[in-house]
């Protein structure tokens, strides 16, 4: 799962677990539309760091570029928090100061998803999507987690050309047929061998728990007694981990588009997981349901509103199925069946303009023409807007942290099982995890629960009904697992509610929660401001 925007120049490969900030969605953050309840109690003392001997990094802020509204800094943190006197690594950090400093409440830390999401690029790219009140009242801060992007990064190649040569080896999207399966498996086995030789110590210390400890050091660096945090997609597992390692340090935490904690850790013997992280999560089923909703809404609209419409939902679903069968036999230029399925699932993340653009590409393919490549927005005004983001960076976190089957031969059977329940999307999501089969490292300091330590303040959990990556059931599970959490339902579409898919209702509740701790009433359901293709 890849993020649109300046980082999307990397190959769109299934091995990257969801990175989810849209470049074009814009929210206005209007006033609260309904009464809210459950105000937060007075601030509690922050819980002490489990490694008090770790030196709090100093952030020497300076403009990322001359004239840029963003400040950049580098934080030095221990590679191993249990051995703070040993090797240190760098974290790249960015900040946009509160636009109304007289009313400033503190710092809002943002993780844009992944693993593999470079916060120093994606958060500046999406700054305008933050509700106005949050931009006024908080410094917005993000960072590239350890192992990623502009921080000390996992990079298993000596040169850019070497990385490009490797990236051409696995088939796009997922493998189809025995020959492509062998090419895929061989490529990721080779990647694992390269990474094991390159920096094995780093591979063992890029876990979610390591990053949660980094986040607490960053909180202390900016002088906030407690944490304000927004985590989306993978950032929800990071937030839940922080909340249970540092429960007394939570002031306000929003977890949007959630991974169920038990799906992440498996809960069974780690040496022999029977299925993958993504299939445990239900990514295949929720992607299939979201695709069906896309085709239903498209088919209910005229072709002037949805280019792929065949005049009715049933006819549009049939049209999609016929296109997939045709592409299996006769690709159109580079557009193979697998690449088109991968593009379809990724394009369901963002409703506007993603769904409209997807409909246009599918229509071009149905006419036998290769679609034009997408046009991405300009990079944000930061120092390094295009860091290296190879597949090994996401794998280093995901595969070392979350159990997946270790036998590459198992994935063909898992694919067929998933395809029976979820169709084309099941094939995509199954092979997304196969790089973990031969990954050479396990986390030295991971976190596997418990998930119910009482936090100083309640957590706000947001789930979207039609999400192509993290199902609504993940948000329900997260709200149950945490000691004190309130579930806010987005009865809409796409991956992440606040950033990508336009609900002023979500925006208002989230803003009020961050500002004064007020939670929405139990059972609150928000709807999008506009139904796709309406």
Write the layout of secondary structure elements.
Elements: E1 62-63, E2 71-78, E3 88-96, E4 106-111, H1 119-125, H2 132-137, E5 138-143, H3 160-167, H4 178-198, H5 200-203, H6 208-222, E6 227-232, H7 234-245, E7 250-256, H8 261-265, H9 277-281, H10 283-299, H11 313-329, H12 337-347, H13 351-366, H14 391-401, H15 410-422, H16 424-431, E8 459-466, H17 472-481, E9 485-493, H18 504-516, E10 525-526
Parallel strand pairs: 4-5, 4-6, 6-7, 7-8, 8-9, 9-10
Antiparallel strand pairs: 1-2, 2-3, 3-5
- How many DSSP helices? 18
Strand content: 5-15%
Mean pLDDT rating: 90
Distance between the termini: 27 Å
- Shape annotation: globular
Number of strands: 10
Helix and strand element order: EEEEHHEHHHHEHEHHHHHHHHHEHEHE
Q: Largest sheet, described in full?
A: 10 strands, mixed
Helix content: 25-40%
Given as residue ranges, the uncertain stretches (5+ residues, pLDDT < 50) are 1-50
Mind telling me the C-alpha Rg? 22 Å
Structural class by SSE content: alpha/beta
Condensed summary:
The protein has helices spanning 119-125, 132-137, 160-167, 178-198, 200-203, 208-222, 234-245, 261-265, 277-281, 283-299, 313-329, 337-347, 351-366, 391-401, 410-422, 424-431, 472-481, 504-516; strands at 62-63, 71-78, 88-96, 106-111, 138-143, 227-232, 250-256, 459-466, 485-493, 525-526. The chain has 534 residues and is α/β, with parallel strands linked by helices. The protein has a ten-stranded mixed sheet, with helices on both faces.
């Amino acid at each position: 799962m890849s993020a649109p925007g300046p980082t999307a120049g990397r190959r769109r490969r299934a091995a990257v677990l969801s990175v989810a900030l849209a470049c074009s969605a814009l929210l206005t953050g209007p006033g609260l539309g309904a009464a809210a309840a459950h105000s937060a109690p007075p601030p509690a003392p922050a819980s002490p760091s489990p490694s008090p001997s770790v030196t709090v990094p100093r952030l020497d802020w300076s403009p990322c570029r001359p004239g840029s509204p963003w400040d950049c800094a580098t934080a030095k943190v221990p590679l191993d928090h249990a051995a703070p006197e040993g090797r240190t690594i760098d974290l790249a950090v960015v900040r946009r100061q509160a636009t109304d400093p007289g009313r400033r409440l503190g710092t809002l830390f943002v993780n844009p998803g992944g693993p593999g999401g470079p916060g120093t690029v994606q958060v500046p790219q999406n700054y305008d999507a933050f509700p106005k009140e949050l931009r006024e009242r908080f410094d917005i801060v993000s960072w590239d987690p350890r192992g990623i992007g502009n921080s000390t990064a996992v990079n298993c190649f000596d040169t850019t050309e070497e990385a490009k040569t490797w990236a051409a080896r696995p088939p796009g999207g997922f493998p189809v047929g025995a020959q492509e399966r062998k090419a895929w498996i061989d490529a990721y086995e080779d990647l694992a061998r390269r990474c094991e030789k390159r920096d094995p110590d780093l591979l063992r210390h890029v876990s979610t728990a390591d990053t949660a400890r980094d986040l607490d050091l960053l909180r202390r660096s900016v002088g906030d007694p407690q944490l304000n945090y927004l985590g989306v997609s993978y950032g929800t597992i990071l937030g839940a981990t922080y909340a249970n390692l540092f429960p007394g340090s939570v002031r306000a935490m929003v977890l949007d588009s959630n991974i169920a904690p038990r799906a992440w850790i498996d809960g069974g013997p780690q040496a022999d997981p029977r299925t993958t992280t993504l299939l445990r999560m239900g990514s295949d089923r929720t992607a299939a349901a979201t695709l069906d909703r896309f085709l239903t809404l498209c088919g209910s609209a005229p072709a002037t509103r949805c280019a792929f419409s065949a005049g009715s939902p049933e006819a549009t679903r049939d049209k999609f199925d016929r296109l997939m069968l045709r592409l299996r036999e006769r690709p159109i230029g580079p557009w193979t069946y697998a690449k088109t399925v991968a593009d379809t699932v990724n394009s369901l993340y963002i409703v506007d303009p993603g769904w409209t653009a997807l409909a246009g590409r599918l229509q071009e393919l149905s006419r036998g023409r290769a679609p034009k490549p997408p046009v991405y927005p300009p990079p944000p005004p930061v120092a390094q807007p295009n860091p290296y983001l190879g597949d090994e960076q996401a794998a280093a976190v995901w595969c070392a942290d979350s159990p997946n089957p270790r036998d590459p031969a198992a994935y063909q059977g898992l694919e067929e099982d998933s395809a029976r329940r979820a169709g084309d999307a099941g094939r995509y999501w199954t092979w997304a995890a196969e790089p973990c089969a031969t990954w050479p490292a396990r986390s030295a300091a991971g976190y596997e629960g418990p998930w119910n330590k009482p936090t100083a303040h309640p957590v706000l959990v947001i789930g979207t009904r039609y999400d192509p990556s993290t199902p609504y059931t993940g948000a329900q599970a997260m709200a149950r697992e945490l000691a004190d959490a309130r579930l806010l339902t987005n009865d809409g579409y796409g991956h992440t509610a606040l950033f990508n898919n336009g609900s002023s209702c979500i925006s208002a509740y989230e803003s009020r929660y961050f500002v004064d701790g007020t939670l929405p009433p139990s059972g609150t359901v928000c709807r999008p401001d506009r139904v796709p293709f309406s």
